[in-house]
Design a protein that fits this description.
The strands form three sheets. This protein has a four-stranded mixed beta sheet with strand order 4-5-6-7. Strands 1-2-3 form a three-stranded antiparallel beta sheet, covered by helices on one side. It has a two-stranded antiparallel sheet with strand order 8-9. The protein has a domain of about 180 residues: Lambda Exonuclease, Chain A (Alpha-Beta Complex). Helices cover about 40% and strands about 15% of the residues. Helix 6 packs across helix 7. The protein has eight helices and nine strands.
Length: about 290
């Protein structure tokens, strides 16, 4: 790989990311991203826009140096951040949270919330992260990636790492599809086909009125749900471990059976469940955008 001496998040780095294919782009190109379609990525590349910063993203940026130090101390090795281009594919770049040539490993830090951290503890890794580190191993030539998950609140700190080995089949697929996206869609300025994630931008008065009313109702409902949750917790604490009722409210203590994790049932491991699925159907999901 060829090191590019740029500060990550500088204007020069942002321009390089816009003109190349980075590790955070590959999941969208391969149709593996939960948040971004190939068309959405293409528009960002062509228009020079970026994903708006949200509190979770800012927290990840703020805690990354602290998390890197934590894992460096744990591993007993230095993993400095760097930016690099692939030796052969000049359109392929990677911004490493950390790279150690002696360990033949890249370090990818994920500052996550409680739900994601608990899933990782159970061995459930978001698929886009797996593709991301394969891209990084492709650029660097490394044989291993350390996916480092860091969860921190005012009262709690948890960290766990997952080793991911180099997968030549995955790398071959991402090189093929990323290369096609770069040469056909970016250089050829051809917009990818729309997917279910893509939407028509509405700016008419009718949509504006309903959207404004919907967001207001949603915000009030969420506030009431949060208040309801707090009151439930207070009632449970007041019940003192016994079922209680009064003034039209009953707090019932009961035991529920644990949920079955069908993915862990060995008899179902090689069973094709497709014949048992109902027919596919269209559904609607309404989302409030930032």
């Amino acid at each position: 790989m060829r090191i590019v001496h740029l500060d990550q998040r500088s204007s020069e780095w942002l321009e390089l990311r816009r003109s190349k294919i980075g590790a955070s782009d590959c999941a969208a190109i391969l149709g593996k991203s939960r948040y971004k379609s190939p068309r959405m990525l293409w528009k960002q590349k062509m228009e020079g826009t970026s994903t708006p910063m949200n509190p979770a993203m800012q927290k990840g940026i703020d805690l990354e140096p602290e998390a890197r130090l934590y894992f460096e101390q744990k591993f007993g090795a230095s993993f400095p951040s760097s930016v690099a281009l692939h030796d052969e594919y000049s359109w392929m770049m990677a911004s490493f949270d950390g790279f150690n040539a002696e360990r033949d490993a890249v370090l990818e830090i994920k500052v996550v919330g409680k739900k994601t951290f608990e899933e990782v503890e159970k061995g459930i890794i978001p698929v886009e992260y797996e593709w991301q580190v394969q891209h990084q191993m492709c650029v660097s030539g490394a044989g291993m990636a350390l996916l480092a998950f860091y969860y921190k609140t005012e009262d709690e700190l948890k960290a766990i790492e997952v080793g991911v080995g180099r997968d030549e089949a995955m790398i071959a697929e991402l090189v093929e599809k990323e290369g096609a996206f770069y040469h056909i869609n970016m250089l050829g300025y051809i917009e990818p086909e729309a997917s279910d994630m893509d939407a028509i931008e509405r700016k008419d008065a009718s949509w504006y009125a309903l959207a404004l009313k919907y967001r207001g109702v949603k915000e009030r409902r969420e506030a009431l749900e949060e208040e309801e949750k707090s009151l439930k917790e207070m009632l449970i604490e007041l019940a003192g471990g016994e079922s209680c009722q009064g003034y039209g409210v009953r707090a019932t203590r009961y035991q529920a059976e644990g949920r079955v994790d069908y993915k862990k049932v060995p008899q179902l491991e090689d069973v094709d469940l497709t014949p048992y699925r109902s027919a596919a159907s269209f559904h609607w999901r309404i989302t409030s955008l930032p």
